[in-house]
């Protein structure tokens, strides 16, 4: 999560129709059937007669952009090495807007959001999710479930309307990693996080408690929706979990903030990120996740990755690279 900058008052929401609808899973996924349980089904044409299945798609829409400083992002990396990395890649080292990609999974009658964006009180360039969903043909009342990867503001706060404290997705139920719930709802959570996160932690605790009556808590390996399973990717936060979407032989990992920068996370996964609460654990998670994604040639959707956030991971020398779809 980027550092908090230019937090805005409730009510300063600006509309946008910058929809980025990308089918994550390509043609194969669009033609795949999912069962209502955990086990993946065969391609649609091969599904046995009478089995309760439904077609599923995954796309991303934007919640806007965020800003952060390079110094916050990489607090320990030598600046000369950072400059060299960006120069070799032919990219500018200057900070650029950070995308926020909310995934929309449609399976059967369900419309499932993976994360809910930041709402209007985090940064003025974010909080656009309701507008982009409408542009994608998804009314907020149509959302049946919101699955959170973690409880940082840019993933959680958008579930509650800043004006009247109502739910933005009134017909939805919610799912959060159990370890995230346990951490962020502690009465003393602000004493357990760095100074930059203390006020934000209080806001996340309040948001989670506001949703408690409709909130389900799930552990890694457990089903969070039909065909969707939590995968443990801790470090960025204590209970951070990615979401594995299984559709026949196609697998899509919606990675939240486990891999958050298209260059640094892949080329230098051993560098510490300023927003990771447990930096050593986050590094181990990145390395293991990159290895899995490259070996299994799995589609990745990254919340802060460029474009639609959709792509694949390839090995590149002794590191990796992100290849956008």
UniProtKB/TrEMBL annotation:
Gene3D superfamilies attached to this UniProt entry: Ribonuclease Z/Hydroxyacylglutathione hydrolase-like
Key word Metal-binding present: yes
Molecular-function GO terms, alphabetical: hydrolase activity; metal ion binding
SMART domains recorded: Lactamase_B
Keyword Zinc: yes
One Pfam family per UniProt: Lactamase_B
Residues annotated as domain Metallo-beta-lactamase: 99-304
Entry keyword set: Hydrolase, Metal-binding, Zinc
InterPro entries listed in its UniProt record: MBL_superfamily_lactonases, Metallo-B-lactamas, RibonucZ/Hydroxyglut_hydro
Entry similarity comment: Belongs to the metallo-beta-lactamase superfamily.
Full protein name: Glyoxylase, beta-lactamase superfamily II
Source species: Methylorubrum salsuginis
Lineage of the organism: Bacteria, Pseudomonadati, Pseudomonadota, Alphaproteobacteria, Hyphomicrobiales
């Amino acid at each position: 999560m980027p550092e908090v900058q230019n937090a805005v008052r409730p009510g300063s929401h600006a509309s946008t129709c910058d929809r980025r609808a990308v089918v994550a899973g390509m043609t194969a996924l669009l033609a795949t059937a999912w069962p209502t349980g955990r086990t993946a089904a065969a391609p649609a044409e091969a599904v046995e007669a009478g089995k309760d299945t439904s077609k599923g798609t995954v796309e991303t829409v934007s919640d806007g952009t965020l800003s952060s400083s390079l110094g916050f992002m990489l607090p320990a990396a030598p600046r000369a090495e950072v400059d060299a990395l960006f120069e070799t890649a032919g990219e500018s080292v200057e900070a650029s807007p950070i995308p926020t990609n909310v995934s929309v999974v449609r399976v059967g009658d369900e419309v499932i959001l993976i994360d809910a964006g930041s709402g209007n009180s985090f940064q003025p360039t974010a909080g656009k999710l309701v507008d982009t969903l409408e542009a994608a043909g998804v009314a907020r009342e149509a959302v049946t479930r919101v699955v959170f990867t973690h409880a940082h503001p840019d993933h959680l706060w958008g579930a509650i309307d800043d004006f009247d404290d109502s739910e933005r997705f009134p017909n939805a139920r919610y799912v959060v990693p159990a370890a995230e719930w346990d951490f962020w709802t502690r009465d003393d959570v602000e004493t357990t996080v760095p100074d930059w996160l203390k006020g934000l932690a209080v806001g996340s605790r309040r948001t989670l408690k506001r949703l408690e009556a409709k909130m389900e808590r799930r552990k890694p390996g457990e089903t969070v929706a039909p065909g969707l399973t939590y995968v443990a990717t801790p470090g960025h936060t204590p209970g951070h979990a990615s979401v594995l979407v299984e559709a026949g032989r196609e697998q899509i990992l919606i990675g939240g903030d486990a891999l958050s920068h298209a260059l640094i996370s892949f080329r230098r996964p051993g560098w510490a990120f300023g927003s990771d609460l447990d930096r050593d654990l986050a590094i181990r998670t990145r390395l293991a996740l990159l290895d899995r994604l490259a070996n299994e040639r799995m589609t990745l959707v990254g919340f802060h990755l460029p474009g639609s956030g959709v792509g694949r991971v390839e090995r590149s020398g002794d590191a990796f690279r992100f290849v956008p779809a």
